[in-house]
């Protein structure tokens, strides 16, 4: 599942260290002015954004293509991270399956979802999501708390007294407590880490402090020596699986609007998949007892499925002749969103890549034909997608793709002021040739942390996360010698 699906809060440490990138050194965005716009004016802008073919200047077109290539290169650099994370995942699963003090987690399985596995992870391969599937033991009553995203979950019948789920029920013995499940997940991960060793002995995992409204146990991979910069971040999210025979909750019952795009048959297939709930507390203060123990519905497994097989025809992207640019467009949009968030962390605190993904899914269901996404048309397609997001923001209307009654841009979900700022920021990016598309810092090539025992002659490398650079010790020694000679020469010549 997407990180953003669980927490709309960006990573606090995600701020751009190198702020030199954005041309917009002083935010010229003036939300107050934006607020005063007349409704008619907005409508004109909206209709303008909906106009047919988008014209893209050759310069902008090249810039978009260049960034798209860059993203691809960055993607290939993730084998070290994948290895470390897979080892962690496999061993955590072994631990959970053999642990005697918590039988509910003994049948757990991992669902591989989230952007890493969709191959649309952007600037670096260092964030991973893992959904830990927990089976609901019997039928559930799912009571909507907010129009379809958040629920209170009760068991329809009393559970057997020996059932492992008993320990996670509230006093009424029917309601499943999201906080109890999440706390237990924390406890188990901490217990696991007491004995688990990272294959690369120079690193260790640490559990992060709990953040409110986050359904994940977040861990950081840190170095045993030297600086404390985070190398990899992993989110482990317990996800309650509702049995497919029970169907999706009412608010999502129709299935997503994919008939024109993927076909009715696929919609039926999608609807036959189980749905999941993650232990996420609804936003807001003075919450009722129900809301404090709320669960949020998750469709990340379905999102993964439809992004993987995204063609209007089955042959899309099967051969070089049929390659489309849909995934590239999504990656570019995510990249721009990351850039915007890093540039304006405070103003765009509520923005997350899930907004981009949602706009993307809506766009795919409207522009459904494969020929519209021909690889050659990447720049125009991306501008279309960008306009679509801008449009949703302008109208303050971005329906959740699976729960259409829930508006991700409603004032409760996305403050008006922030939305106005977003509209202006997107417009500015579009007008100025997308300067924030480019990431500020190069991607850390994580694979360069070798295991010293591997080979005595292996060169040691040091990685500087603040610049993302990796230095070979031998190379640095050579450089030091060159520098010393050069300095001596300069002193000698100056004399
Ligand atoms: Zn395709």
What does it look like?
With 495 residues, the chain is of the alpha+beta class. The chain has 3 domains: 2-70 and 318-458, Poly(a)-polymerase, middle domain (Orthogonal Bundle); 75-289, 2-Layer Sandwich (Beta Polymerase, domain 2), CATH 3.30.460; 461-494. The protein is built from 15 helices and 11 strands. It has helices at 3-6, 31-35, 39-50, 58-76, 79-98, 115-118, 178-195, 264-271, 289-292, 300-308, 326-343, 353-366, 378-395, 416-431, 473-494, and strands at residues 109-111, 127-135, 140-144, 150-155, 203-207, 217-223, 232-242, 275-278, 295-298, 461-464, 469-472. Strands 1, 2, 3, 4, 5, 6, 7, 8 and 9 form a 9-stranded mixed beta sheet that branches. Strand 3 (140-144) and strand 4 (150-155) form a beta hairpin. Helix 3 runs antiparallel to helix 13 (378-395), helix 11 (326-343) packs antiparallel against helix 12 and helix 11 packs across helix 13 (378-395). The protein starts with a helix and ends with a helix. Residues 4-51, 117-121 and 442-476 have low confidence and may be disordered. The structure holds zinc ion. Residues 310-311, 316-317, 324, 326 line the site of zinc ion (ZN). Pfam families: Mab-21, Mab-21_C. The chain crosses the membrane at residues 469-494. Residues 1-22 have a biased composition (Basic and acidic residues). One of its GO terms (cellular component) is site of double-strand break. Belongs to the mab-21 family.
């Amino acid at each position: 599942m997407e990180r953003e699906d669980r927490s709309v809060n960006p990573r606090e440490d995600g701020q751009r260290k190198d702020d030199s990138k954005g041309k917009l050194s002083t935010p010229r965005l003036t939300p107050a002015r934006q607020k005063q716009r007349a409704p008619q004016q907005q409508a004109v802008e909206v209709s303008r954004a909906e106009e047919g073919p988008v014209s893209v200047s050759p310069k902008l077109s090249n810039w978009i293509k260049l960034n798209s290539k860059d993203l691809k290169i960055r993607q290939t650099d993730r084998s070290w991270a994948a290895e470390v994370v897979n080892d962690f995942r496999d061993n955590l699963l072994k631990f959970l399956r053999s642990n005697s003090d918590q039988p509910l987690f003994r049948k757990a399985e991992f669902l591989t979802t989230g952007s890493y596995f969709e191959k649309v992870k952007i600037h670096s391969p260092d964030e991973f999501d893992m959904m830990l599937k927990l089976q609901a033991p019997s039928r559930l009553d799912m009571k909507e708390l907010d129009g379809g995203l958040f629920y209170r979950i009760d068991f329809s019948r009393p559970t057997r007294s020996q059932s492992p789920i008993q320990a996670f029920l509230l006093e009424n013995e029917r309601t499943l407590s999201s906080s109890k499940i999440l706390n237990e997940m924390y406890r188990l991960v901490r217990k696991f880490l007491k004995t688990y060793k990272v294959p690369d002995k120079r690193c260790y995992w640490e559990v992060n402090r709990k953040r409110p409204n986050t359904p994940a146990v977040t861990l950081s991979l840190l170095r045993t020596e030297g600086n404390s910069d985070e190398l990899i971040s992993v989110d482990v999210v317990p996800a309650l699986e509702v049995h497919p025979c029970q169907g999706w909750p009412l608010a999502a019952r129709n299935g997503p609007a994919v008939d024109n795009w993927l076909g009715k048959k696929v919609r039926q297939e999608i609807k036959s998949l189980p749905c999941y709930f993650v232990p996420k507390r609804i936003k807001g203060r003075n919450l009722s007892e129900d809301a404090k123990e709320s669960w949020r519905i998750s469709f990340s497994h379905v999102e993964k499925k439809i992004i993987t097989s995204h063609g209007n025809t089955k042959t899309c992207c099967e051969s070089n002749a049929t390659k489309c640019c849909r995934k590239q467009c999504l990656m570019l949009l995510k990249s721009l969103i990351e850039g915007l968030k890093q540039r304006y962390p405070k103003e765009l605190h509520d923005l997350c890549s899930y907004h981009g993904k949602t706009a993307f899914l809506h766009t795919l269901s409207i522009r459904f034909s494969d020929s519209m996404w021909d690889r050659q048309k990447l720049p125009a397609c991306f501008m279309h997608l960008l306009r679509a997001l801008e449009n949703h923001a302008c109208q303050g209307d971005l329906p959740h793709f699976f729960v259409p009654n829930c508006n991700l841009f409603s004032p409760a979900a996305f403050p008006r002021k922030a939305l106005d700022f977003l509209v202006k920021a997107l417009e500015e990016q579009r007008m100025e040739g997308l300067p924030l598309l480019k990431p500020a810092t190069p991607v850390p090539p994580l694979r360069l942390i070798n295991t010293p025992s591997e080979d005595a002659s292996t060169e040691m490398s040091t990685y500087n996360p603040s610049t993302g650079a990796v230095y070979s010790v031998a190379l640095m020694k050579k450089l030091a010698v060159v520098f010393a000679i050069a300095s001596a020469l300069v002193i000698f010549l100056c004399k």
